[in-house]
Recover the amino acids of this structure.
């Protein structure tokens, strides 16, 4: 089983399914980059540019969904044993959750009044988003190296895990601030949106870690 899996992955440049996986990863990481831009534009008061970036997140998430379906069909037709096919499908679904949460964060961002948001939370949100972007880009690198250089892929997986921990630390810092911040400029509904936006950003990092956990499972089969 392991030999067939590594052989299949080693032929990645000639396999339509692997090309689709790479496109899926590219669409997913691009969606997260557009979310980062959307947040930065809105923080700086450029609502039009932020809205355009949000639209691009939606387009990229839809593209990722379409590619996921294509990948599922290609993997189903592959000569791999059922267990290996299931491993790859789990990997793709975990990547897809990254795109899903980027889309959800973008939706929430549209309604979140960042101009009323306490400055302390703005700073933490921006710091989280920088790390989340780096996290997802490393997920893309990790999966793309899986069938090429296993040792490097696992090192990148460790980097993703470290970045997720950094995001989690900032997220917990933000949650610890909730009871003491000045909410005089926001109503209860707006405060909930602010909290949900930070949650969605953190979930992107969580699913990045879940994705590299699946990479490690595949790596065990390969070794």
């Amino acid at each position: 089983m392991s030999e067939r899996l590594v052989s299949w992955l080693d032929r990645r440049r000639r396999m339509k399914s692997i090309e689709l996986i790479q496109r899926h990863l590219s669409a997913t990481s691009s969606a997260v980059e557009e979310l980062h831009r959307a947040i930065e534009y809105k923080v700086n008061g450029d609502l039009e540019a932020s809205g355009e970036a949000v639209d691009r997140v939606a387009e990229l998430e839809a593209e990722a969904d379409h590619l996921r379906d294509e990948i599922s069909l290609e993997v189903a037709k592959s000569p791999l044993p059922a267990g290996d096919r299931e491993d790859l499908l789990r990997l793709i679904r975990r990547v897809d959750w990254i795109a899903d949460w980027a889309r959800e964060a973008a939706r929430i961002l549209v309604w979140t009044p960042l101009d009323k948001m306490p400055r302390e939370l703005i700073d933490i949100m921006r710091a989280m988003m920088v790390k989340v972007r780096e996290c997802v880009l490393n997920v893309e690198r990790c999966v793309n190296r899986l069938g090429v250089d296993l040792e490097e892929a696992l090192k990148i997986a460790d980097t993703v895990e470290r970045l997720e921990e950094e995001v989690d630390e900032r997220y917990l810092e933000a949650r610890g601030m909730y009871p003491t911040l000045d909410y005089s400029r926001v109503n209860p509904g707006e405060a909930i949106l602010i909290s949900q936006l930070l949650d969605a950003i953190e979930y992107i990092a969580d699913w990045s870690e879940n994705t590299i956990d699946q990479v490690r499972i595949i790596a065990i089969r390969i070794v």
In short: The chain has a mean pLDDT of 90.
